[in-house]
Amino acid sequence: MDKVIAKRFWTKQKMIFTGLGLALAAFVIYLAFFSDKRAKLNVEAEKLTISKVSEGNFDEFIIVQGVVQPLKTIQLDAIVGGYVTQKLVEGGNMVKQGDIILRLENQQLKLNFLQSETEASRLVNDLQNTRQRLKVERFTLQKTLSDLDFQIAQAKDAFDRNANLKKDNVVSDMDYQKTKREYERLKRQRDIEIESQKYQEENSGLQIKQLEGTLTRTQKNVDLWRQTLENLVVKAPVSGLLSSINVEIGSNINQGQNIGQIDDMNGFKLRAEIDEHYISRIFTGLKAKFEFSGESHQMEIIKVYPEVLNGRFAVDMIFTKIAPSGIRRGQSSPIRLELGESQKAKLLPVGGFFSDTGGNWVYVLEKDGKKAVKRNITLGRKNPQYYEILDGLSPGDQVITSSYSNYGDKEVLELK
């Protein structure tokens, strides 16, 4: 007799399907709650620049390009115009103070000088004639007064005699009055002559004073014309290098025209152009370093030019001690310009990442070095070597500092 066998619930097939279902459910749960959903990108590690965050002294400075120039440059401008008849020194030669560089010719200046001299000579003659006339008038006055005094003495004697005789009725009243009138007439004539001569002398003195003033001014004018003629000979105002001379024989030069320059070779300065971003932080006395022939030389700013051209402004710097030997005019060299004192800070080397992130975030490597994760940071000051880290990174962190331009918005970089 056959035996009924009970059917089993967990068959092999059910167990397989149930296991697969549970595995699938577990996988879905993992993806939903535990998997890393961040956007990822595979990159080649050898193409990356990885820098380590460190702690040290942050030196705030910028590197600017300086050009060596003479400490003093004297511009040669034509004081008077004219055409060049001689050129005695070419550009590039040393000159001593007083050396003749050019000779000019100007016929109009010579004519003006001669006219001024002629006018001065005429005034000298007029002054001499006026003084001579004044002397003659004084002698004439003395002679006239002498004659009048003699006539007055005679008239007084006649008047006194007739006055005595009139008392005794010896002379007539008519004779008495006649001698009296004659005597008084001569006295009045003497007073009038003195007054007239006084006026003439005052007038002559005024003329002499005016002529002397005019002559003085004319002589000064003659001296000025003479100095102007002397300026037709262009001389070196100082000793130095005649670095340029921009005229040739026969060329015409206008008054005030620049004809060259002389460089004082007793010292040098460096002129540098700086980005206008730093204009509020640049001032006279600011220190700088100049590397030359393996040695460091201290410098300081002596002048800041306020004019901004094409986003840059210029400064002049001099050596605080003796200028290094061997530097030449026109030589270009980098200068380290200090903007502040050294301070302790967290430092991140400068890299191309900044242009892509603006310094707001970076990719930081995980400890295993297989992934780099996006992290927000805060940067402070910058110098040509380092950024100052204010927040988001710690000393020892490994940061990708090369360009992020190919990574898009990926949050995780997987290094291979």
In short:
The protein is of the alpha+beta class.
Describe this structure in words.
The protein has 416 residues and is an alpha+beta fold. It has three domains: 40-60 and 343-415, conserved putative lor/sdh protein from methanococcus maripaludis s2 fold; 62-67 and 262-338, Efflux pump adaptor protein, beta barrel domain (Elongation Factor Tu (Ef-tu), domain 3, Beta Barrel); 108-230, Helix Hairpins (Orthogonal Bundle). The protein has four helices and 22 strands. The protein has a six-stranded mixed sheet, with no helix packed on it. A hairpin with a 3-residue loop joins strand 19 and strand 20. Helix 2 (107-167) runs antiparallel to helix 3 (173-230). The radius of gyration is 53 Å and the shape is rod-shaped. Residues 349-403 form the Multidrug resistance protein MdtA-like C-terminal permuted SH3 domain. It is found in: Cell envelope. Residues 176-228 form a coiled coil.
Order of helices and strands: HEEEEEEEHHEEEEEEEEEHEEEEEE
Strand content: 25-35%
| CATH topology term of the largest domain | Helix Hairpins
Tally of helical runs: 4
How many structural units, i.e. domains?
3
Structural class per helix/strand content?
alpha+beta
- Strand neighbour order, sheet with most strands: 1-22-18-17-21-2
What is the class of the largest domain in the CATH system? Mainly Alpha
Range of helix content: 25-40%
CATH architecture title of the largest domain: Orthogonal Bundle
Q: What coarse outline follows from CA principal-axis ratios? A: rod-shaped
| Rg result | 53 Å
